[in-house]
């Protein structure tokens, strides 16, 4: 798992690359469906050719094992 740890708030961060906006948006939708299913929601930023995903647990004030699991599940959604 090659996620970056960032501060303020402490969180897991990763940028996923795509050929165009349509593919980026489709991936963001898959991440959104995963988040709803698991009742744990990331910060998603969708841009042309890229999706930024950030996982952390607000109530814990940082990264939990649930966030690490969600990052692994997010990686599994990425076909790249």
Offer a few descriptive terms.
4 strands; 80 residues; Gyrase A, domain 2; globular; alpha+beta; 4-stranded antiparallel sheet; single chain
Query: Looking at this structure, what is the CATH superfamily?
Result: Transcriptional coactivator/pterin dehydratase
Averaging pLDDT over every residue, what do you get?
Answer: 96
The domain tally reads 1
CATH topology assignment = Gyrase A, domain 2
Helical residue percent band? 25-40%
Number of strand segments: 4
User: Element order, helices and strands?
Assistant: EEHEEH
Name the shape in a single word.
Answer: globular
The Cα radius of gyration reads 12 Å
| Main sheet record | 4 strands, antiparallel
Separation of termini? 15 Å
> What is the CATH class name?
Alpha Beta
As a percent range, the share of strand residues is 25-35%
Number of separate helices: 2
CATH architectural arrangement: 2-Layer Sandwich
Low-confidence stretches: none
Strand order of the largest sheet: 1-2-4-3
Structural class: alpha+beta
Structural overview:
The protein is an alpha+beta fold. The protein has one domain: Transcriptional coactivator/pterin dehydratase (Gyrase A, domain 2, 2-Layer Sandwich). The protein is built from 2 helices and 4 strands, in the order ββαββα. It has a 4-stranded antiparallel sheet with strand order 1-2-4-3. A hairpin with a 4-residue loop joins β1 and β2. The protein is globular. The mean pLDDT is 96.
Briefly characterize the structure:
It is built from two helices and four strands, in the order ββαββα.
């Amino acid at each position: 798992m090659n996620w970056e740890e960032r501060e303020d708030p402490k969180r897991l961060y990763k940028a996923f690359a795509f050929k165009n906006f349509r593919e980026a948006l489709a991936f963001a939708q898959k991440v959104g469906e995963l988040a709803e299913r698991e009742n744990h929601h990331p910060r998603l930023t969708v841009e042309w050719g890229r999706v930024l995903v950030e996982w952390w647990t607000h109530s814990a004030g940082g990264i939990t094992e649930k966030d690490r699991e969600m990052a692994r599940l997010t990686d599994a959604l990425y076909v790249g």
